[in-house]
Write a structure and sequence with these properties.
The complex is a heterodimer of chains A (262) and B (303). Chain A is of the alpha/beta class and 262 residues long. Chain A contains ten helices and ten strands. In chain A, 47% of the residues are buried. Chain B is built from twelve helices and no strands. Chain B has helices at residues 5-42, 48-52, 73-104, 108-122, 125-141, 153-177, 181-189, 194-205, 207-223, 226-231, 252-260, 265-293. The chains are: A alpha/beta (262), B mainly alpha (303).
Chain lengths: 262, 303
């Protein structure tokens, strides 16, 4: 629906990211079991499930950061616009699939400006004007430009937790990814900071495919177009968020959503 | 006298803390006496010309007149040259080695490297001196380097760098291990190649601790004497830049060693002065190492 409340034809949904038969391991322990799922472009998908069900590991496979952990590996296919990310150089994959982590992790030695500019600078963007333009745009996208424009030289770690997390989002956006992965981005934040991030996620889906892991079911219900329920490394149910929360088809999903375990 | 259990415990606790304090007191007596003695005996000869003049000729006032105290200019010069040469070799190699151990060497090969680095740290410095002497001698025999490099400021600098490399590598590794993994992942997730993430993000996050390790290694090399006795056994002259690095030089530790066993009062007095300068220099490096730990962003950085 548009602002006046009339129904507008939604553009045809296309799968930005298609996961086919993904399995992930730490050593000999398998944490993701032959998982297949499609993620839509320009929408938010939430991944919910109890602690230890493999949510984080799963999205860490999508930008190939899972394999940077010693003895960790993954098999299966992850198609980004039809191209298997496991056949592309992982560095190139991560430029297209950005990530925001559970705990805000700005670079401790860098200023606010330096943090947002870091991805560009380290990827060889040398033109200061271009860097500046992207930094400003990313900070605006992350809805924090007005808060920090007066002190861009202040250290990134001097910000509050919620601001740090939005700074990390701005940093991820500055390299212009196509997909944004968020691994429980609000779990270390208070309710006000959380609601700011949620508003931000809502804005971000105009431009990006956002995949957010959350253990907060209300959050999934608030921000996500679609929701996937994971349990013990398996995809139990996947569908429109409204369907999942109001009419889950699988008994297990219903028990989890109604709080009978998890 | 009979105590109840609580009183006994409290009393025992007091006795133990006093005993600990006493042990600490005894342990710092040597340090105190070093400072006391070197200041007391060293301050006598220290004036401006002590830093600007070269070492004096040996002189005994009982038999000669006009004895000069001279100075330690050529010793300081030699020490700075040795530090420069050894740091120029050891810091890049040690830091790169530390980066390898911390970021890439988390497997059996890295473990054995770590073990050898620890063993190397414990090798007596005189042995390092002999090894470097043999190395330069054999290279000269093969005609690969001129013979006169064997006993020179260069070979001594190389020997000191051998002593520094494992220290720098291990402290650098430990410094980088303190950088949280989330910082590494943040860099990798931006699509930064691993080598770039390590050299620009991880290293700069841990830079103050790396710097501390480097300074402590320099302090160690500054006071090292044994390899100098073999390789760079003094010169009464200033360094001649035109003569290159194959000339021998003096240095603070070697001058002290040389002068203090002589029978000449002016040399013995100068040895105390040089001791004071060396102690203050080492103290200065240690303080600089501590200050390096306080980085610009306070608690944000890693110590």
């Amino acid at each position: 629906m548009d602002e006046s409340g009339t129904l507008v034809a939604s553009p045809p949904r296309s799968a930005k990211l298609q996961v086919e038969g993904l399995s992930a391991y730490y050593g000999s322990k398998q944490v993701i079991q032959d998982l297949s799922i499609d993620f839509d472009d320009k929408s938010v998908t939430a991944i919910i499930g109890p602690s230890g069900c493999g949510k984080s590991t799963f999205i860490r496979c999508l930008n190939r950061i899972h394999e940077t952990v010693p003895r960790a590996r993954a098999t299966g296919r992850v198609l980004l616009d039809g191209e298997d990310v496991y056949t592309i150089d992982p560095v190139r994959v991560r430029r297209r699939v950005g990530m925001v982590f559970q705990k805000p992790n700005p670079f401790p030695t860098m200023s606010i400006y330096g943090n947002v500019a870091s991805g560009l600078r380290l990827n060889g963007v040398r033109k200061p004007a271009l860097v500046q333009e992207r930094v400003i745009r990313s900070l605006k996208q992350a809805a924090m430009w007005d808060e920090v424009k007066e002190h861009l030289d202040a250290p990134g770690v001097s910000l509050s937790g919620g601001q740090q997390q939005r700074l990390c989002i701005a940093r991820a956006l500055a390299v212009e990814p196509e997909v944004l992965l968020m691994d429980e981005p609000c779990s270390a934040l208070d309710p006000i900071a959380t609601s700011k991030i949620e508003d931000l996620i809502f804005d971000l889906k105009r431009d990006y495919a956002v995949i957010i892991v959350t253990h907060n079911m209300q959050q999934a219900a608030r921000v996500a177009d679609k929701t996937a329920f994971l349990y013990l490394g398996k995809l139990i149910e996947y569908g429109d968020t409204k369907e999942i929360f109001e009419r889950p088809k699988v008994k297990l999903t219903e028990s989890y959503i109604t709080g009978r375990f998890g | 006298m009979k105590f109840d259990r609580d009183t006994r415990r409290k009393l025992f606790s007091h006795v133990v803390s006093v005993a600990c304090l006493l042990c600490v007191g005894i342990a710092i007596i040597p340090l105190g006496s070093i400072l006391y003695e070197s200041v007391l005996k060293g301050i006598v000869v220290i004036n401006w010309s002590f830093f600007t003049e070269n070492q004096p000729l040996p002189c005994n006032p009982q038999f000669q007149s006009g004895c000069q105290f001279g100075g330690i200019f050529n010793s300081i010069e030699g020490t700075l040259l040795l530090i420069g040469i050894s740091a120029a070799i050891a810091l890049p190699l040690g830091i790169l080695g530390g980066i390898y151990l911390s970021e890439f060497g988390r497997h059996r090969f890295g473990d054995s490297l770590r073990f050898f680095a620890d063993v190397l740290t414990g090798v007596p410095s005189i042995v390092v001196g002999i090894v470097v002497f043999s190395l330069f001698f054999l290279l000269a025999q093969q005609g690969l380097i001129p013979t006169n490099y064997t006993l020179s400021v260069l070979s001594a600098g190389v020997a000191l760098s051998f002593i520094m490399i494992p220290i720098v590598a291990r402290t650098c590794e430990e410094a980088l291990a303190l950088v949280p993994n989330s910082t590494r992942e943040a860099a990798l997730a931006l699509g930064v190649p691993k080598w770039k993430a390590v050299t620009s993000i991880v290293l700069s996050t841990g830079r103050s601790a790396v710097m501390t390790g480097a300074l402590l290694a320099i302090a160690r090399a500054t006071g090292e004497t044994a390899p100098l006795i073999i390789l760079d056994a003094g010169s009464q002259f200033s360094f001649q830049p035109s003569a290159g690095l194959h000339q021998p030089t003096s240095s603070l530790p070697f001058s002290i060693y040389n002068w203090v066993q002589s029978a000449y009062p002016n040399w013995i007095a100068d040895a105390w002065g040089a001791t004071l300068v060396l102690v203050v220099l080492m103290l200065g490096i240690s303080v600089a190492a501590r200050l390096a730990l306080r980085n610009k962003y306070g608690e944000g950085g890693v110590v």
